[in-house]
Specification:
Low-confidence stretches: none
Structural class: mainly alpha
Oligomer: single chain
Number of domains: 2
Number of helices: 4
Strand content: under 5%
Helix content: over 70%
Shape: flat
Number of strands: 0
Radius of gyration: 27 Å
Length: 139
C-alpha cells in the first residue's frame, strides 16, 4: 500500500468512528429526553387541534387550568421537594405542568401552520339494518 491509500483508509476509519460516536451521543440524548419527545409527538400528531381549539374557546380552558393546578398540587404533596434553583415546592411543579401545557399549545399552533391535522377515528360500531334476511337460520 502506498502512502495515499493508507491515508484514505485512515480517513474512512476516522469518519466511521465519528459517525458511530455521533449516533451513540444522539441516542443517549434521545433516551434522556424520551418522555418530552413522546409528549410532543402525541400533541402534534395525536390531537386534532382544530376541534380542541373550538372546545377551549367555548369554555373548556377553565377546567383545563383547574386540572393543571390540581396536578401540580398533588405532585407537590407526593414529592415535596424544592427546586434546586430556589423556587418553592408547589410553584416549580406548577411551572413544570405549565411548560407541558405550553408545549402542547405550541404543537397545536405548529399543527395548524403545517396542516398536519390527524384523521378522525370513528369508535362507534357500524350500524346494520335488521331486515328479514338477517341470517339466524329460522324461517
Amino acid at each position: 500500500m502506498g502512502p495515499t491509500e493508507s491515508t484514505i483508509l485512515d480517513n474512512v476509519l476516522l469518519i466511521l468512528h465519528t459517525l458511530v460516536t455521533l449516533v451513540s451521543q444522539l441516542a443517549g440524548l434521545g433516551f434522556h429526553w424520551i418522555l418530552w419527545i413522546v409528549w410532543a409527538a402525541l400533541c402534534l400528531w395525536g390531537i386534532n387541534w382544530k376541534k380542541t381549539r373550538h372546545f377551549l374557546a367555548s369554555g373548556a380552558w377553565a377546567p383545563a387550568v383547574l386540572l393543571m393546578i390540581l396536578v401540580a398540587l398533588v405532585w407537590s404533596r407526593i414529592d415535596p421537594s424544592p427546586c434546586p434553583c430556589g423556587i418553592a415546592n408547589f410553584w416549580w411543579q406548577l411551572g413544570y405542568v405549565g411548560l407541558l401545557v405550553g408545549i402542547a399549545m405550541f404543537c397545536g399552533w405548529l399543527q395548524d401552520v403545517m396542516h398536519w391535522t390527524p384523521h378522525d377515528i370513528n369508535f362507534d360500531p357500524p350500524a346494520h339494518g335488521h331486515g328479514d334476511g338477517h341470517g339466524h337460520g329460522h324461517h
